[in-house]
């Protein structure tokens, strides 16, 4: 259920982006791909970036699109750092010498009728030092939790583990409800940001 909610939040399956998540070190090159499933070959594919976490003031930053064998850039976009190329069904965005400031969620988009159609999104994180994997440690056999039983009463045997099971079930339901609430809230915030972007394209 949570996976389906995240898919609905991040975009349409008509535009599939790869990879979904990417963490790289500073000054590396990054390649992001967008593949259209149903659009004709002359469809213009836009690339956008959402730098900050979703909030009431979130907005998309227009980066570039590919047209007639050249890249058309948005305002204040460094043409030496960012390039876009390729016609549908495959379109590629390349970033050179990335910095932590380049982190964010990158979306490809097409202008549909009557709505804008967004890709599934790529979460890019640029860090100075990549996290290291923890060193293997000597495994110790965990102590098994034993429910103490009273041999003279059958009812006490059954009830000794009941609170633990009920607690786990309650925690699972609570986590599910919280995840659902967060997904709905993020969906509303992203919809507001997209409505603001829609007004800009149809002015």
Automatic annotation (TrEMBL):
<keyword id="KW-0325">Glycoprotein</keyword>
<dbReference type="GO" id="GO:0042288">
    <property type="term" value="F:MHC class I protein binding"/>
</dbReference>
<keyword id="KW-1015">Disulfide bond</keyword>
<keyword id="KW-0391">Immunity</keyword>
<dbReference type="InterPro" id="IPR003599">
    <property type="entry name" value="Ig_sub"/>
</dbReference>
<dbReference type="InterPro" id="IPR036179">
    <property type="entry name" value="Ig-like_dom_sf"/>
</dbReference>
<keyword id="KW-0732">Signal</keyword>
<dbReference type="GO" id="GO:0050776">
    <property type="term" value="P:regulation of immune response"/>
</dbReference>
<keyword id="KW-0472">Membrane</keyword>
<keyword id="KW-1064">Adaptive immunity</keyword>
<keyword id="KW-1133">Transmembrane helix</keyword>
<dbReference type="GO" id="GO:0015026">
    <property type="term" value="F:coreceptor activity"/>
</dbReference>
<protein>
    <submittedName>
        <fullName>T-cell surface glycoprotein CD8 beta chain</fullName>
    </submittedName>
</protein>
<dbReference type="InterPro" id="IPR013106">
    <property type="entry name" value="Ig_V-set"/>
</dbReference>
<dbReference type="InterPro" id="IPR013783">
    <property type="entry name" value="Ig-like_fold"/>
</dbReference>
<feature type="domain" description="Ig-like">
    <location>
        <begin position="13"/>
        <end position="110"/>
    </location>
</feature>
<dbReference type="InterPro" id="IPR042414">
    <property type="entry name" value="CD8B"/>
</dbReference>
<dbReference type="Pfam" id="PF07686">
    <property type="entry name" value="V-set"/>
</dbReference>
<dbReference type="InterPro" id="IPR007110">
    <property type="entry name" value="Ig-like_dom"/>
</dbReference>
<dbReference type="GO" id="GO:0005886">
    <property type="term" value="C:plasma membrane"/>
</dbReference>
<keyword id="KW-0812">Transmembrane</keyword>
<dbReference type="GO" id="GO:0009986">
    <property type="term" value="C:cell surface"/>
</dbReference>
<dbReference type="GO" id="GO:0002250">
    <property type="term" value="P:adaptive immune response"/>
</dbReference>
<keyword id="KW-0393">Immunoglobulin domain</keyword>
<feature type="transmembrane region" description="Helical">
    <location>
        <begin position="164"/>
        <end position="186"/>
    </location>
</feature>
């Amino acid at each position: 259920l949570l996976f389906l909610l995240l898919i609905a939040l991040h975009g349409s399956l008509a535009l599939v982006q790869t990879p979904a998540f990417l963490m790289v070190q500073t000054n590396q090159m990054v390649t992001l791909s967008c593949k259209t499933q149903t659009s004709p070959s002359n469809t213009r594919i836009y690339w956008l970036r959402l730098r900050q976490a979703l909030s009431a003031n979130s907005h998309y930053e227009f980066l570039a699109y590919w047209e007639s064998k050249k890249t058309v850039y948005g305002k204040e976009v460094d043409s030496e750092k960012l390039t876009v190329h390729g016609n549908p069904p495959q379109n590629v965005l390349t970033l050179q010498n990335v910095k932590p400031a380049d982190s964010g969620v990158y979306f490809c988009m097409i202008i549909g009728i009557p709505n804008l159609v967004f890709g599934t999104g790529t979460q890019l994180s640029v860090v100075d030092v990549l996290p290291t994997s923890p060193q293997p440690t000597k495994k110790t056999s965990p102590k098994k939790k034993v429910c103490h039983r009273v041999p003279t009463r059958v009812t006490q045997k059954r009830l000794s583990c009941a609170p633990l099971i009920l607690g786990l079930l309650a925690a699972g339901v609570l986590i599910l409800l919280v995840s659902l609430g967060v997904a709905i809230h993020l969906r509303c915030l992203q919809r507001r940001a997209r409505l603001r972007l829609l007004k800009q394209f149809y002015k």
